[in-house]
Design a protein that fits this description.
Strand order of the largest sheet: 1-2-4-3
Shape: globular
Number of strands: 4
Strand content: 15-25%
Order of helices and strands: EHEHEEHHH
Helix content: 40-55%
Distance between the termini: 29 Å
Number of helices: 5
Radius of gyration: 14 Å
Structural class: alpha/beta
Largest sheet: 4 strands, mixed
Length: 146
């Protein structure tokens, strides 16, 4: 199950469908399944989450909260993979900065979050390269080009 929530903002049916589709595509691309909750929230809320859970008092674009920390998780079909929080304001600003649509930026952040839930990271250059390639493959397949 993929649950899309909006905190302090209204999401259109098309944006909800986009996010569900992108999360599902990212899971499928990794031969994974499981439950994910994606929250689209305000800058103030994501800053509080970042501060409370990571000790970083700053607004960020996306946060992930894996149900299990550590190795990649593609578990049983009924496994709860975790939560993703996306900052709507940062997504809008980044879309403008990068010269693409808000929808493309939301899709990118959702894919990025799913990959984190599945154990991918970008702390080391070689890991970042793998994660970036996977993100671009998924987004390209869905038609979200740069």
């Amino acid at each position: 199950m993929i649950e899309i929530r909006a905190d302090g903002t209204r999401l259109s049916a098309s944006v909800r469908a986009l996010l569900c589709g992108v999360v599902e595509a990212a899971l499928t691309s990794e031969c994974a399944s499981g439950d994910v909750c994606l929250l689209v929230t305000s800058a103030a809320r994501i800053r509080a989450l970042n501060r409370d859970f990571r000790g970083v008092d700053a607004v960020t674009d996306v946060l992930t909260f894996p149900a299990l920390e550590g190795a990649a998780l593609p578990g049983p079909a009924d496994a709860y993979l975790g939560d993703i929080a996306v900052c709507r304001a940062r997504a809008k600003a980044q879309a403008g900065s990068y010269g693409h649509s808000f929808e493309r930026e939301l899709a990118f952040l959702a894919v990025h979050g799913v990959l984190h839930l599945l154990g991918y990271d970008h702390m080391q250059p070689e890991d970042e390269m793998v994660m970036c390639q996977k993100q671009e493959q998924i987004l390209t397949k869905l038609g979200y080009l740069r």
